[in-house]
Design a protein that fits this description.
238 residues; mainly alpha; Arc Repressor Mutant, subunit A; flat
Length: 238
C-alpha cells in the first residue's frame, strides 16, 4: 500500500523527470514493467504485489526495475493510470446523455476487471495521461451541452464520484460475500426480525428482489444524476 509519509502530489511519478533509456537496461522499459504489474495485480491482488515478484515475472533482477520506476508507489500509480486508458473516447454523435452513459458504464466495468482498483482510489492523484484523457472526454460532452466551464467541471466530478463510489462498493462487497451478490436469506431473516417494528420501511425493502439487481441500481442512480444535469443545461434528457 502507499507510504503514508509521502506527499501524494509532490511525490507523484507524473511530476518527476523520467530517466532516459540506459544501454544497460535495453531489455526493460517502464511500459513493460507497468504491463507486468497490471497482470500481477489482476492475477493475485494488491497485497501480493512486490518488486521482487514483479522482477520474477519479467525475468530480471529486482534492482533493475528501479532504473525505470523509483518505488512500488510509482508502479501502483502507473498501473492505476494504465487501466484508465481502457475507457475509450465518447461518441459525440450520440445524444449527450447516451454518450455519458457509455463512458460511465465503461468506467464502472474497469473496477470489475481490475478488482484492486477500488483499493487505490484516493491514494494517488489522477494526473496521468489516461486519467486526464478520461476527464477531458467527460468534459467535452458536458461543455457541448452549453454548461459553463465551472458547471461542467462540477458535473464531471459528480458523475465520476458516483461511479467510483458505486463500483468500489460493489467490488469490495463482492470480496466479502457470494459472487452472485444476492443477500443470504439467513441473515436477512435475522435483520428483519430484529428491526421490523422500529424500522418498517427499511426492513420491507428486503422482499423487493429487484433491488438486488446491481445493473438496474446503477442505471437508476446514473439516470438520476443525468436528470439533475439536464435541469442545468436546458437541453432535452434523451
Amino acid at each position: 500500500m502507499a507510504d503514508k509519509t509521502r506527499d501524494p502530489v509532490l511525490d507523484s511519478v507524473w511530476l518527476a523527470e523520467r530517466r532516459p533509456a540506459s544501454a544497460g537496461h535495453v531489455a526493460l522499459s517502464r511500459e513493460a514493467i507497468v504491463r507486468a504489474a497490471v497482470e500481477e495485480l489482476d492475477a493475485h491482488g494488491l497485497a501480493a504485489l512486490s518488486m521482487r515478484k514483479l522482477a520474477t515475472r519479467l525475468g530480471v533482477a529486482p534492482m533493475s526495475l528501479y532504473w525505470h520506476v523509483p518505488t512500488k508507489d510509482a508502479v501502483l500509480e502507473l498501473a492505476l493510470d494504465e487501466v484508465l486508458g481502457e475507457v475509450g473516447p465518447p461518441d459525440l454523435d450520440r445524444a449527450w446523455t447516451d454518450a455519458l452513459r457509455g463512458l460511465m458504464s465503461h468506467f464502472r466495468q474497469l473496477f470489475h476487471r481490475h478488482t484492486w482498483l477500488p483499493h487505490l482510489q484516493g491514494l494517488y492523484p489522477n494526473i496521468g495521461p489516461n486519467a486526464v484523457g478520461l476527464a477531458e472526454s467527460v468534459l467535452a460532452v458536458l461543455v457541448g451541452t452549453g454548461l459553463s466551464q465551472v458547471e461542467s467541471s462540477r458535473a464531471a466530478s459528480t458523475l465520476m464520484s458516483f461511479v467510483t463510489g458505486f463500483a468500489s462498493s460493489e467490488v469490495r462487497w463482492a470480496e466479502q460475500s457470494s459472487p452472485a451478490g444476492q443477500p443470504d436469506p439467513a441473515w436477512i431473516a435475522v435483520l428483519v426480525e430484529r428491526y421490523r417494528e422500529r424500522f418498517p420501511l427499511f426492513t420491507s425493502q428486503f422482499v423487493l428482489t429487484e433491488l438486488w439487481e446491481a445493473d438496474a441500481q446503477f442505471d437508476h442512480g446514473l439516470d438520476c444524476v443525468l436528470a439533475g444535469l439536464e435541469t442545468r443545461t436546458g437541453q432535452p434528457h434523451r
